């Protein structure tokens, strides 16, 4: 069912500072950089082996990522687990009693599908599932 770490998302104070750090210290350059004004964040995305690693910088104080950054400082927002058949898995997880975010898997701004289990169903741990690659 879970077949890889699909992506790891970090929240940071500045994606520009993080990009400079990663290039200077690890010779990494992002495969894309975006500003999602309507969603309230800027991002940089890296492909490291089979895993995507993205860094989000909040643009507004009313987002969950801004609240996390203020409460705990920079760090991991979530790990997304790669799956196949996300539409069926979403339904199966609901049938098993999990409370899911939304009525169906969503498409991320990067083009892959995601499904999230509400933390009340998963012992306080945020599980995000992802299928597909970035576009």
Record the strand order, biggest sheet.
2-3-4-1-5-8-7-6
Order of helices and strands: EHEEEHEHEEE
Main β-sheet description: 8 strands, mixed
Number of strands: 8
- The CATH architecture designation is Roll
Rounded to the nearest angstrom, the radius of gyration is: 15 Å
Helicity level, as a percent range? 10-25%
CATH topology: 2,3-Dihydroxybiphenyl 1,2-Dioxygenase, domain 1
The number of distinct structural domains comes to 1
Please, what is the CATH homologous superfamily? 2,3-Dihydroxybiphenyl 1,2-Dioxygenase, domain 1
Low-confidence stretches: none
- Share in β-strands: 35-45%
Overall 3D geometry? Answer: globular
Structural overview:
This protein is of the alpha+beta class. It has one domain (4-131): 2,3-Dihydroxybiphenyl 1,2-Dioxygenase, domain 1 (Roll), CATH 3.10.180. The chain is built from three helices and eight strands; from the N terminus they run βαβββαβαβββ. The chain has helices at 15-26, 64-72, 86-95, and strands at residues 4-11, 32-36, 41-48, 51-58, 75-82, 106-107, 113-117, 127-131. A hairpin with a 2-residue loop joins strand 3 and strand 4. The longest helix is centred in the N-terminal third of the chain and has 12 residues, at 15-26. It is globular, with a radius of gyration of 15 Å. The mean pLDDT is 94.
């Amino acid at each position: 069912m879970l077949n890889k770490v699909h992506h790891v998302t970090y929240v940071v104070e500045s994606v520009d500072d993080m990009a400079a750090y990663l290039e200077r210290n690890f010779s990494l350059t992002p495969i894309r950089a975006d500003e999602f004004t309507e969603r309230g964040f800027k991002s940089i995305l890296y492909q490291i082996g089979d895993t995507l690693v993205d860094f989000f910088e909040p643009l507004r104080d009313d987002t969950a990522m801004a609240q996390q950054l203020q409460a705990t400082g920079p760090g991991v927002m979530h790990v997304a687990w790669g799956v196949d058949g996300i539409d069926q898995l979403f339904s199966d997880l609901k049938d098993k009693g999990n409370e899911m975010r939304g009525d169906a898997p969503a498409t991320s701004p990067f083009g892959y599908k995601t499904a999230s289990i509400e933390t009340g169903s998963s012992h306080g741990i945020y599980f995000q599932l992802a299928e597909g690659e970035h576009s």
